[in-house]
């Protein structure tokens, strides 16, 4: 469930490409999109199969029969080779006119009368098709009907009537030079042209599959939310240093490191603690900002559990709620938050009066206090910088829960005061463009992004992390969930 990665490169963050700069979709991307929307592909494929089956069951059979006629151009007297060539050319030219004549009222009206059909010549024209193969003097007349015998009768009748009409049009003299010869009479077909169950079902499945894949790709292109660690790392431009599985009960029990230390999510936060140690092997990573592109992506939960994990490791830790617009740390930690950071910054109280110890570890919490009218100004003040310097000198680690980056400038301000920042990105919630923009915002103020934490990772499906495993086994230890006053 957690990725162990090497430390990111020190110094200014390098430029990272937008996830949308790729002009062509690679095969692995296509496969990933199809896997994520496998249910959509299966649904549309099943729909195509169902349509084919229903159509075959409902539609009446359609029988098709074809007759062929040949256009003959005669010439009197002794024929030379030039005469034969000219006659062949004339036949090829005339045959195109006969294609149109075959479906006129003059031809089909007689067919209707001769066969006693209960349709008009216009209706019959929709059941008759005529074509001429290229560079030939042949005409292929096809007719469709509800019965095999009826299709053959109509095709033969059309070919005979067309020959008669052409004779009337072309041969105004007794020695006319043009005639139509029937070279193949219409056969009674042995199988209907439609429906064809095997072919139709196969075609329905194929078209449904192609449509499903197309919709899956379209859904993946339109829906630009971060799905996995690779997309999160690419969008933020920093490696994923922890992946936390989704838990629908996290709102009610957010402090998993304390409440259920054997839970896979608790191990994720311990791995985050370990990976952060590698993020600054040459220096002292004292103060750390935890933020996210937007709200409701899990940054406060990450900040609280990271502080607990660091304290469990024996370090002296202070958790600072610097989200002065929507503070949540006090509520999550079960503490009184009426007075805190804002009161210290305006000189109303001393730091020691509002700094609250938590539990039995070396963890202290500084709530946000009252929501001020000018959060950005307070956080960008000299008093805030002095306070963080004091906390960094007093504690081993200062974990700062900052507001999200995109709605306000507070997180960008805090990133310039701290040693580094962690960007929290929620799977299936954070949009890739938002993560890219949030990173660019911190880059503009030279904030140092140490890594990415992917939260709300699904425990099932192609995007799921390994959310189960060794830590599911064995009894769960119990701890006193009540923090010290």
Summarize the structure.
This protein has helices at residues 27-36, 38-58, 81-101, 105-115, 121-125, 148-170, 197-222, 229-236, 256-259, 264-278, 299-312, 329-333, 341-345, 351-354, 375-379, 382-394, 410-417, 432-444, and strands spanning 63-73, 128-131, 138-145, 178-184, 240-245, 287-291, 317-321, 356-358, 363-366, 397-401, 420-426, 449-457. It has two domains: 63-184, EIF_2_alpha (Alpha-Beta Plaits, 2-Layer Sandwich); 226-472, Rossmann fold (3-Layer(aba) Sandwich), CATH 3.40.50.300. The chain is 44% helix and 15% strand.
Strand content: 15-25%
Intertermini distance: 34 Å
Please tally the helical runs, counting DSSP H or I stretches of 4 or more residues: 18
Number of domains: 2
Placed side by side, the strands forming the largest sheet appear as 5-12-11-6-10-7-9-8
Fourth-tier CATH superfamily name of the largest domain = P-loop containing nucleotide triphosphate hydrolases
Using the 3D structure, state the CATH architecture of the largest domain.
Answer: 3-Layer(aba) Sandwich
**What is the total tally of β strands?**
12
By secondary-structure content and strand pairing, the structural class works out as alpha/beta
Give the oligomeric state of the chains in this entry, treating copies of one chain as homo and distinct chains as hetero.
single chain
Order of helices and strands: HHEHHHEEHEHHEHHEHEHHHEEHHEHEHE
Helical content (DSSP H or I, runs of 4+): 40-55%
- Write down the overall mean pLDDT: 84
The low-pLDDT segments are 1-23, 77-81, 465-485
CATH topology of the largest domain: Rossmann fold
How would a crystallographer describe the biggest sheet? 8 strands, mixed
CATH class of the largest domain: Alpha Beta
Structural shape:
rod-shaped
Q: Indicate the radius of gyration in whole angstroms.
A: 40 Å
